[in-house]
Amino acid sequence: MSTPLPKIAWIGLGIMGSPMSENLLKAGYSVTGYTLEQDKLDRLAAAGGTAAGSIAEAVEDADVVVTMVPASPQVEAIAYGPDGILENARQGALLIDMSSITPQTSVDLAKNAAAKGVRVLDAPVSGGEAGAIEAVLSIMVGGEQADFDTAKPILEALGKTIVLCGPHGSGQTVKAANQLIVAVNIQACAEAVVFLEKSGVDLQAALDVLGGGLAGSTVLTRKKDNFLNRDFKPGFRIDLHHKDMGIVTDAARNVGAALPVGAVVAQLVASLRAQGDGGLDHSALLRSVERLSGSQV
């Protein structure tokens, strides 16, 4: 007789969390969700999930709790306190935090959870909204091998590349490196776009041929239409990338790694946010280059 699939509680149904939880429903899991926006709870219910009225209600019967919230303060808010996950999850439950937070927050969470009999993995993702919808995310995991083995079938319903990177916090460290590479890559693409346009070259043709050579990248493939159409509807907001650049610059300073180009791009992300573009997609780094190049934005 096949063992029943674990019952899942999902906390945080935003741009990433909603399609990810729906992919678990499609894979046959029962999902009880909680988030702050009623329309997101309605969406989960319409997809076949169960909407809970609180974190405690969502997690009380769950074998696995998955969290997907914006940053460290939100993870701490949902994990700790009388109404939080650790006080209300059952002994032996597995908490998979898929948020992108500081490595230290993940280490602390795992330690505090262990005292309550709750196992933890940090499992941040890369691939953005499209990757979440298509279930092709890259998932970088920190924690114990046995817990990773338990979580793997669930993660396989959400992503394509799933790797245990080391102990607690390792997933977050790799995610920070991912965000460094993505930001620098977008910045380079944005500078190329402005250079090409000011030179009078057909941008579509140029990006097509660049994409086929060594300059090609997942970033260029995924963001090409954003650049061509100046479409900055958020898949991943500048506000969140600003948060992530803070994580990577802080973590790098702690271990003594120099990030000279990363530091410059972190400042460009910060300036874009200061100019009111924080709610736009991170491909809007193009707007910063346009401003610096004298274009009206």
TrEMBL record:
Residues 7-166 form the 6-phosphogluconate dehydrogenase NADP-binding domain. It is an enzyme of class 1 (oxidoreductase). Pfam families: NAD_binding_11 (PF14833), NAD_binding_2 (PF03446). InterPro entries: 6-PGluconate_DH-like_C_sf, 6PGD_dom2, 6PGDH_NADP-bd, HIBADH-like_NADP-bd, HIBADH-related, NAD(P)-bd_dom_sf, Tartro_sem_red. Keywords: NAD, Oxidoreductase. Residues 169-287 form the 3-hydroxyisobutyrate dehydrogenase-like NAD-binding domain. One of its GO terms (molecular function) is 2-hydroxy-3-oxopropionate reductase activity. Its EC number is 1.1.1.60. It comes from the Bacteria. PANTHER family: 3-HYDROXYISOBUTYRATE DEHYDROGENASE-LIKE 1, MITOCHONDRIAL-RELATED. Belongs to the HIBADH-related family. This is 2-hydroxy-3-oxopropionate reductase. It comes from Streptomyces xantholiticus. The lineage of its organism: Bacteria, Bacillati, Actinomycetota, Actinomycetes, Kitasatosporales.
